[in-house]
Write a structure and sequence with these properties.
Layout (H helix, E strand, L loop, with lengths): L2 H8 L7 H10 L10 H19 L2 E6 L2 E6 L3 H10 L20
Antiparallel strand pairs: 1-2
């Protein structure tokens, strides 16, 4: 299996063109025609996949009078799981402030 075939398998539900996949692989520095080794290129392929997921996150809102309904395809959880799998900082994690106690006396 090539790198492009592996990525195409992961993104098959996103309806992407072959050119979009080729461009993403090129921008990630991956050769789509080379053999896919999950231990060697797994992180890079997952990050390209996460990038595709981030571009497809949509929030639509319907408003009528004083009623509002928001729809989301909630791919944030998948992106967060990919980042955590590789030990990277979750882009959707809530920042936790550091609190230092200061004695005024």
């Amino acid at each position: 299996m090539t790198i492009k075939e592996a990525l195409s398998t992961k993104v098959k539900s996103l309806s992407l063109t072959s050119g979009e996949i080729d461009l993403a692989l090129l921008e990630a520095g991956l050769d789509g025609a080379s053999a896919y080794d999950p231990t060697a290129q797994g992180m890079e392929v997952d990050l390209v996949w996460a990038g595709f997921l981030l571009t497809t996150i949509q929030v639509t809102e319907l408003k009528e009078d004083d009623v509002s309904i928001k729809y989301s395809n909630n791919l944030k959880d998948i992106v967060s799981a990919i980042y955590l799998k590789w030990g990277l900082v979750d882009p959707f994690a809530i920042a936790k402030p550091t609190v230092k106690q200061v004695n005024l006396w």
